[in-house]
Specification:
The chain has 2 domains: 13-24 and 100-232, Rossmann fold, CATH 3.40.50.1000; 28-95. The protein has 233 residues and is of the alpha/beta class. Strands 3-2-1-4-5-6 form a 6-stranded parallel beta sheet. The protein is built from 10 helices and 6 strands. Helix 3 (64-71) packs across helix 4.
Length: 233
């Protein structure tokens, strides 16, 4: 008997962004970026600093080293130094308790797993920063996997993080993947990965129009709404 490939399989994998989606941002990414830029001579109040922050806002969700390479236009030494300063600044925010879970996130993670989905957190941060966030929030037992760019994986908007998660967790159909994120790059990676549900989370990096234009299949007010959305679907 031939398999009916027109039937969408049940969701089995949820790939969720961190800053702005599951983890509160409150301007922390921009503050860390601002400090990193100042360290490379782009001081606050200058046109160069403002232009660089525009790039940071536009590229939210992307690997941070990729963002700094764009800002410094191929000056690898400056990009690497800025990236290191950014990660150091953000890790300090974590250490002093400025990074918190967004309301309803932990309940949502639990509900997704209770419904039979594996939960993966993805980010544009470095591994050390992601680890610091996970440890500070005590989320190790709430997720199945955490992935970052590098380690032979390209960051968003490429689909590598999502597809790697699917391979690691033995997901055999990309249509059973659910993606949620607050930036156009999160949405782009979900679309490129072939996920059946690519939910744009409002209130973060990019607005509803931008998320919809990037290909979001749904728009939700917060990641806390994701389990309910999947039950409706």
């Amino acid at each position: 008997m031939t398999h009916d490939w027109t039937t969408t399989p049940r969701p089995r994998l949820a790939c969720l962004d961190m800053a702005g989606t599951t983890v509160g941002d409150d301007g922390l990414v921009e503050r860390a970026a601002s400090a990193a830029l100042a360290g490379q001579g782009l001081d606050p109040g200058t046109a160069g600093h403002a232009a660089a922050l525009d790039v940071v806002r536009r590229t939210m969700g992307q690997s941070k080293i990729t963002v700094f390479r764009e800002i410094f236009d191929g000056r690898e030494e400056a990009a690497v130094a800025a990236n290191a300063a950014f990660e150091s600044a953000f890790t300090e925010f974590v250490a002093v308790g400025e990074v918190t879970a967004l309301p309803g996130t932990e309940q949502a993670l639990a509900e997704l797993r209770e419904a039979g989905l594996a939960v993966v957190l993805t980010t544009g941060f470095a591994r050390s920063t992601q680890d610091a966030i996970l440890d500070a929030l005590g989320w190790r037992d709430l997720i199945d996997l955490a992935l970052v760019p590098g380690e032979a994986l390209r960051g968003r908007p490429f689909p590598d993080l999502i597809l790697h998660a699917a391979l690691r967790l033995s997901i055999d159909d990309v249509r059973s993947i659910v993606v949620a994120g607050d930036s156009v790059n999160d949405i782009g990676s979900g679309v490129r990965a072939g996920a059946a549900v690519v939910a744009g989370v409002l209130g973060g990096a990019h607005d509803a129009d931008a998320l919809a234009a990037a290909g979001a299949t749904h728009l939700i007010g917060s990641v806390a709404e994701l389990p309910g959305l999947l039950r409706q679907e």
